[in-house]
Automatic annotation (TrEMBL):
Gene: cex3
Enzyme Commission code: 3.2.1.8
Organism: Streptomyces davaonensis (strain DSM 101723 / JCM 4913 / KCC S-0913 / 768)
Segments forming domain GH10: 1-311
Entry's family note: Belongs to the glycosyl hydrolase 10 (cellulase F) family.
Name of the protein in question: Beta-xylanase
EC top class, as a word: hydrolase
Chemical reaction(s) catalysed: Endohydrolysis of (1->4)-beta-D-xylosidic linkages in xylans
Lineage, broadest ranks: Bacteria, Bacillati, Actinomycetota, Actinomycetes, Kitasatosporales
Shown residues in whole-protein numbering: 34 to 345 of 451
Record has Transcription regulation as a keyword: no
């Protein structure tokens, strides 16, 4: 059987996985390198990981993942620069003037993007800026800088490294709905203003039985705006324990998602948010749910794995 990455390469698509740096040895490392042509650090590049104390940086895990990817001929998706979550407490708990906050944001972008200059394919510059109703999420950044923090972040990222594709990434924007329409309107406005925006990331943290019927249509409308689209964090969760009927349905749904991306030229590919159930965020975040990835806890491929192969 051909590795997923060879199937994806033949179609000019990305098949990626989120990874944990410390696990990149043994079977986990062999699958991560052998089956995927792109890696996203699951946590290692978040602000709280790289600058836990102001001015003192820890790049160890992020460097490890980028080095591993380069050794294995894989792209890297940087994740993520400007977000409301997983920030260091010194940042969250500080009191900042508008000018200070802007400087903190742009310095952070310059430092992190600059560190990996020329080595990353993509950056998720802004993560999760919207509420479900399409209004802006009230974050440190929005409250301090207004909605234009998004344009400022994209501009700062481009200035720090002209090569990576710059994305805005969010969840529950896979189908056509109020949130994805707000994202659509934002991207349209940014492009009209000449702000550097290359793509939108649809996270796709899905629930079994709930693949949006408008997924492909939604991908297409972003493509028609003149930006790339990526499925950036795919997983399909279910209540535990899972049975074989549910795993078969999950396979069908993985295939639907990959098919929707393959069908649209400007959909660059699909990244799964952890390739094994032993390295998935779902059980920790949604107690009682799991089995969301294409490999089980023992690294055995599940029906979802074969479904991805069929779609590629
Ligand atoms: C998750 C990680 O997988 C977990 O290990 C961590 O505890 C919380 O964050 N949307 C995102 C990702 O953009 O960064 C999140 O990753 C999952 C939801």
């Amino acid at each position: 059987d051909e590795p997923l990455r060879d199937l994806a390469d033949a179609k000019g698509k990305v098949i990626g996985t989120a990874v944990t740096g410390s696990k990149l040895t043994g079977t986990y490392g062999r699958i991560a390198a052998g089956e995927f042509n792109a890696l996203t650090p699951g946590n290692a590049m978040k602000w709280g990981s790289v600058e836990p104390t102001r001015g003192s940086f820890n790049w160890a895990e992020a460097d490890e993942i980028v080095n591993f990817a380069e050794a294995n001929g894989q792209q890297v998706r940087g994740h993520t620069l400007v977000w409301h979550s997983q920030n260091p407490s010194w940042l969250t708990n500080g009191t900042w003037t508008t000018a200070q906050l802007r400087q903190l944001m742009t310095d952070h972008i310059a430092t992190e993007v600059g560190r990996y200059e020329g080595r990353l394919a993509t950056w998720d510059v802004v993560n999760e800026p919207f509420n479900e109703d399409g209004t802006y999420r009230q974050t440190l950044w929005y409250n301090g800088l207004g909605a234009d923090y998004i344009a400022e972040a994209l501009t700062a990222a481009r200035a720090a490294d002209p090569s990576p594709k710059l994305y805005i990434n969010d969840y529950n924007v896979e189908g056509v709905n109020a949130k994805s329409t707000a994202l659509y309107n934002l991207v349209r406005d940014l492009k009209a203003r000449g702000v550097p925006i290359d793509g939108v990331g649809l996270q796709a943290h899905l629930i079994l039985g709930q693949v949006p019927s408008t997924l492909q249509q939604n991908i297409q409308r972003f493509a028609d705006l003149g930006v790339d689209v990526a499925i950036t964090e795919l997983d399909i969760r279910m209540n535990l324990p899972s049975d074989s009927a549910e795993l078969a349905q999950q396979a069908t749904e993985y295939k639907q998602v990959v098919n929707a991306c393959v069908a649209v030229t400007r959909c660059v590919g699909v990244t799964v948010w952890g390739f094994t159930d032993s390295d998935s965020w779902i059980p920790d975040t949604f107690p009682g749910q799991g089995a969301a990835t294409p490999y089980d806890e023992n690294f055995a491929p599940k029906p979802a794995y074969y479904a991805i192969a069929e779609a590629l």
